[in-house]
Amino acid sequence: MEFSIIEYEPSYGEQTVKMWRESKEQAIGQKDIHSFEDHLYFLNHILKQDNKVLLAIDPTRDQVAGILACNENWVNQLYIHLDYQGLGLGTRLLNLAKQQSAGTLYLYTFEVNKKAQRFYERNGFRIIGRGSINEEQLDDIKYEWNKS
Predict the structure, then answer these.
(1) Which domain holds residue 33?
(2) Which of 4, 51, 53, 68 is the most exposed place for a label (fewest CB within 10 A)?
(3) What is the CATH number of the domain that holds 123?
(4) How many CA atoms lie within 13 A of 145 on its CB side?
């Protein structure tokens, strides 16, 4: 399946937030602690201040299939629509983050999200720390990737 990768456009905002919230809820087993409106505000006004925000679009349905928010040092958000998981889209977006990095990337994932841990480790990330300082109050894992 072919996907278009575009820079975030606010016209996709509501669709993006819906996908993001559903994917995250399925991954960690809890509903988002923020309202839909607050999440949309975060996407439109805060996230893009320090991140390049890319969307993967299924052009046959004009459907948001994934989101990547990253900068030269961090992968801050990476979520794939439940209907598009397992198709290589996460790897494609992660590779874009690696290409634009300064040679090292960091990210956090929740410890309950075993699927994400396997994904990141398969893609060259290694565990460098553990903690639980996040809004969800869940244990998390800090990962690092270095360009070889």
Answers:
(1) 4-146
(2) 4
(3) 3.40.630.30
(4) 25
State residue 126 phi and psi, 5-degree precision: -130, 150
Q: Looking at the 3D structure of the chain, how many domains does it have?
A: 1
Q: Distance between CA atoms of 46 and 102, rounded to whole angstroms?
A: 22
Residue type at 74?
A: W
Residue with tokens 């819906």: 18
Q: For every one of its 148 residues, what pLDDT tens digit does the chain have, with 9 covering 90 and above?
A: 799 999 999 999 999 999 999 999 999 999 999 999 999 999 999 999 999 999 999 999 999 999 999 999 999 999 999 999 999 999 999 999 999 999 999 999 999 999 999 999 999 999 999 988 888 889 999 999 999 8
Long-range CB contacts (within 8 A, 24+) of 9-18? 9/55, 10/44, 12/55, 12/57, 12/64, 13/40, 13/43, 13/44, 14/40, 15/63, 15/64, 16/43, 16/55, 16/64, 16/67, 17/43
